[in-house]
UniProtKB/TrEMBL annotation:
Residues 293-317 are annotated as: Disordered. It comes from the Eukaryota. It comes from Anguilla anguilla (European freshwater eel). Its main location: membrane. The chain crosses the membrane at residues 12-37, 49-66, 94-117, 150-171, 183-207, 234-257. One of its GO terms (molecular function) is glycerol channel activity. Belongs to the MIP/aquaporin (TC 1.A.8) family. One of its GO terms (cellular component) is basolateral plasma membrane. Keywords: Membrane, Transmembrane, Transmembrane helix, Transport. Residues 304-317 have a biased composition (Basic and acidic residues). It catalyses: urea(in) = urea(out); glycerol(in) = glycerol(out); H2O(in) = H2O(out). This is Putative glyceroaquaporin. It is found in: Membrane.
Amino acid sequence: MDSVFRRVRIESLLLRQCLAECLGVYVLIVFGCGAVAQVTTSENTKGQYLSINLGFALGTTFGVYVSRGVSGAHMNPAVTLSLCMLGRHPWRTLPFYVFFQVFGAFLAAATVALQYYDAIMHFSNGQLTVTGPTATAGIFATYPADYLSLWSGFVDQVIGTGMLLVCILAVGDRRNTRIPPELAPLLVGLVVLVIGISMGVNCGYALNPARDLGPRLYSYIAGWGEQVFWAGGGWWWVPLVAPCVGALVGSVVYVLLIEAHHPELDLHLEKADQCQTVDNKLALELEGVELDLNSPKGCPNEGQEGKKAASGKGEEG
């Protein structure tokens, strides 16, 4: 079996990263949307709203564990965009990451639909509807509450995703709080949990364009029809655009208020510490240190470090 694995091993780093992102998002959505499906089709007899929060939170945690060592576990186009903006991820890989993140969410939605097909058909009396008392499209994508305007929903998603990025950057900022690398995925999951508990009632806290678009595309193809795009006053674009805006705002806020003011002494100590904790690619990426892939010890590339030091930049489911 080992010889078979060696023959199919992928040499391209970018492709390995994209596949890791795809699988990480897949894990997130299977658990998250699976929780929504169980609560919805059982009419709250096999779970409540908190079950959905826990499904997405734990899905995020294990998705990060699955992918962080290969791709950094972005699992969210808004996160990837923010890291590119901060100079901690190459812009050229952005479209590839985004495509595979959306694709992973699409495959996960198809998996949930397959697993819950009979339950969905029984609950909805065989009618795949987007709105109404037996609506099931909400199992896959987010939709606004009846009282919510598009503008209010946009603001809701900007605030929620902004808080997500502030907390993610804090978790990865070892010059702020030295969190054991093994705990980072759990803490990111807890961030998703607290956002769901405190900010989920208006429109389901998508926070992630891939989490919403992939399952929405699946529900469109699988029989729910064009209404998945027009329901909620044409809601579909809000979970795509607002999280990106919120992620950029949250990133800038954290860097300007916290990260930019760390003493230089802490920066030098952190670089030395990173050589000993190189196995946690997520933490390194959050700190903006790229690895020299040709170095057997995986220490930061000296040339890149010198360039970053000269430019005066600090550097992050």
